[in-house]
Write a structure and sequence with these properties.
- The protein is built from 7 helices and 34 strands.
- By secondary structure, the chain is α/β, with parallel strands linked by helices.
- The chain folds into 2 domains: about 220 residues, Spore Coat Polysaccharide Biosynthesis Protein SpsA, Chain A (Alpha-Beta Complex), CATH 3.90.550.10; about 160 residues, Hexapeptide repeat proteins (UDP N-Acetylglucosamine Acyltransferase, domain 1, 3 Solenoid).
């Protein structure tokens, strides 16, 4: 199976200079979710139609195995698919068309749609859903229950606007019939564009078999056309991610007040308190406590039984087992050994204005409140820092030392005379 992903539009209602498909949902552009679902479904090298800010979208596509297709002038969805004709010259079997701003469609829904299309022997199939409020969606028009047309919202009659079954924008087409129909569509609509939806009536008139399958849930049918839509999609994906972790033994005290990105790993028995933000690519070990009000950023790997508490930010940092950072700390580009305690107000000063530098903290270290660790710096096992210490690369420390001051220096141990 081959696929065409529509990613050329600006998304005027987003009121943003960023291409609509590159707006992020929990740290990942909406287009990324679509491409990853296609890959899971076994679709290889989808053709991605780009147009508005084409180079920005092209740069993003370097992360995926795709074939970019340029639509210089955005003249509608039908025109966009027409631009992919040459790229589909060697395509065999049905062609899937999917808008790049529809990230909520599940893999199991897609597979069910593929199967129904195959069993019905349709030349064109539409994935539809039923919406409580269908305003703004193209309506699925049926006569005696038989699918006959898709009517765009702006062109629908008053009676058609009452239809609740709507088009998701996802189709399966016989390639020959698709391009025959595209050659016949016109611009006789309120927008003056070439609508892909018009191919359905043309194919039916030319005695091709067309079907609409209402397999998508209302949630899956939610696209991104506005900032409000973006927030709704973000909420749904966040809920899915949290439910996935709950099924694996993770406790969320207040799921509706917690944000978890995709591709996060959390160990069984971990408890996540409210108002935490866990970015994509974070790994959390088992039996940890996270939050409230903690931020874990991409590249962070926490060992087992860590406590990352209130207003602690952890960024590109790896910790061992039983590491505690309970209050008001920033830990960036650090490696922290087993059993170490990070006091309130501690900062790893990892940026010198030009480059990021690492901090290494050994096992069983005790970092006092308001310590500043000026990277690059290495704190040996068992070292204690006094409150307010500034540890610099010039601070000389050995295992078990106590360092204090600005800049920090080891406290000299007093040798007692034996009488």
């Amino acid at each position: 199976m081959d696929a065409v992903v529509l990613a050329a539009g600006k998304g005027t209602r987003m009121c943003s200079e960023l291409p609509k498909v590159l707006h992020e949902v929990l740290g990942k552009p909406a287009l990324g979710y679509v491409l990853e679902t296609l890959a899971e479904a076994g679709v290889k090298r989808p053709r991605v139609v780009i147009g508005y800010q084409a180079e920005s979208v092209r740069r993003f596509l370097k992360n995926y195995d795709t074939v970019p297709v340029l639509q210089r002038d955005q003249k509608g969805t039908g025109h966009a698919v027409m631009m992919a004709r040459a790229a589909l010259a060697q395509a065999q079997g049905p062609v899937l068309v999917w808008p790049g701003d529809m990230p909520l469609v599940k893999l199991e829904t897609l597979k069910r749609f593929f199967e129904a299309h195959r069993e019905s022997r349709a030349h064109a199939s539409v994935l539809s859903c039923v919406q409580t409020d269908p305003a703004g969606y193209g309506r699925i028009v049926r006569e005696d229950r038989k699918f006959t047309a898709i009517r765009e919202a702006l062109d629908a009659t008053l009676e058609e606007r009452g239809i609740r079954e709507v088009n998701t924008g996802i189709y399966l087409f016989d390639k020959k019939g698709l391009f025959e129909a595209l050659e016949k569509i016109g611009q006789n609509n309120r927008k003056g564009e070439y609508y892909l939806t018009d191919t359905i009536e043309i194919l039916r008139r030319d005695h091709y078999c067309v079907e609409a399958f209402p397999f998508a849930s209302a949630e899956e049918g939610q696209g991104i056309n506005s900032q409000k839509d973006l927030s709704l999609v973000t909420r749904q994906i966040n809920q899915r991610e949290i439910e996935k972790h709950q099924e694996r033994g993770v406790t969320f005290v207040a799921p509706e007040q917690t944000f978890v990105g995709p591709d996060v790993k959390i160990g069984r028995g971990t408890v996540v308190y409210p108002w935490c933000f866990i970015e994509s690519g974070v790994t959390i070990g088992p039996k940890c406590q996270i939050g409230p009000f903690a931020k874990l950023r991409k590249g962070t790997i926490l060992g087992a039984e860590n406590v990352i508490g209130s207003f602690v930010e952890v960024n590109r940092t790896q910790t061992g087992k039983n590491v505690f950072a309970k209050h008001l700390a920033y830990l960036g580009d650090a490696v922290i050994g087993d059993g170490s305690n990070i006091g309130a107000g501690t900062i790893t000063a990892n940026y010198d204005g030009k480059k990021k530098h690492p901090t290494r903290i050994g096992k069983n270290a005790f970092i006092g409140s308001n310590t500043v660790l000026v990277a690059p710096v290495c704190v040996p096992d068992g070292v204690k820092t006094g409150a307010g210490s500034v540890v610099t690369p010039k601070t000389r420390m050995k295992k078990g030392d106590v360092v204090v001051g600005v800049p920090a220096k080891p406290i000299q141990k007093i040798k007692r005379k034996v009488s």
